[in-house]
């Protein structure tokens, strides 16, 4: 069997994602005939049908290949980006990826110092979900990333493996459950997370730990979402807490200054809100300076 062609894999992933040969041809800039030929060649190489044609969708073998293909393509792009960074001229741009709660005053001050040192550079901050940021760093779509999440003290965040990235802790803060003012637990000096498993929870995966993450941390079932919140607007999430639509877990300092919201620190298990800086190779330039400022 010959080596699998990465372009054929990219084509296969695109057809499967769009469920259409014609749409994949438009997106990739090929003719539909060329797309069909690439898929046929890949199927012949692997000795298995990968796509059902009408309606278009992956076969069982195709679904298994998709599980392998996504990380393979990310690693290929990561290798290309990493070599390009090392071989290229010093970076003249600064693109930072960040999860919503990782953007704060410390970052603002650090960006100010970078702008003074590199006045011609216009920093770009992209607020994105935690699960996509490591791959964006690896493939060079962002130069570095600030990622936050729930962890045991001094434990690293459980990030996907996408290549040889460096991860450094930037901050750890206590966590608390956000409650509406007047809630029976408001003002408590500490609560056990497991004791809240039957409460109404907000499901806000772009901002706060998922129900699965809460169940794993508490070691119990429950934490069923009462309201689903899709977005990165923290003020909107806290407004839902204040009006009784559900509880959520946030850094204690965030909860403490929110109007209409009370907090109860999590006493057990021991948890922190951890922020990490993630980057690949960083030639001298604005991104490298920002990294030094954030971890210094």
- Spans where pLDDT lies below 50 across 5 or more residues: none
- Residues in helix, %: 25-40%
Radius of gyration from CA coordinates: 23 Å
Number of strands: 12
What structural class do helix, strand and pairing data support?
alpha/beta
Report the oligomer.
Answer: single chain
Written as H for each helix and E for each strand, in order along the chain, the element string is HHHEEHEHEHEEEEHEHEHEEH
Largest sheet: 8 strands, mixed
CA(first)-CA(last) distance: 51 Å
Q: What sort of overall outline do the alpha carbons produce when their principal axes are compared?
A: globular
Beta-strand content: 15-25%
Q: Number of helix segments?
A: 10
Average predicted confidence as pLDDT: 90
Q: In words, what does this structure look like?
A:
- With 296 residues, the chain is an alpha/beta fold.
- Helices cover 39% and strands 22% of the residues.
- It has 10 helices and 12 strands.
- The strands form 3 sheets. Strands 3, 4, 5, 6, 7, 10, 11 and 12 form an 8-stranded mixed sheet that branches. A two-stranded antiparallel sheet has the order 1-2.
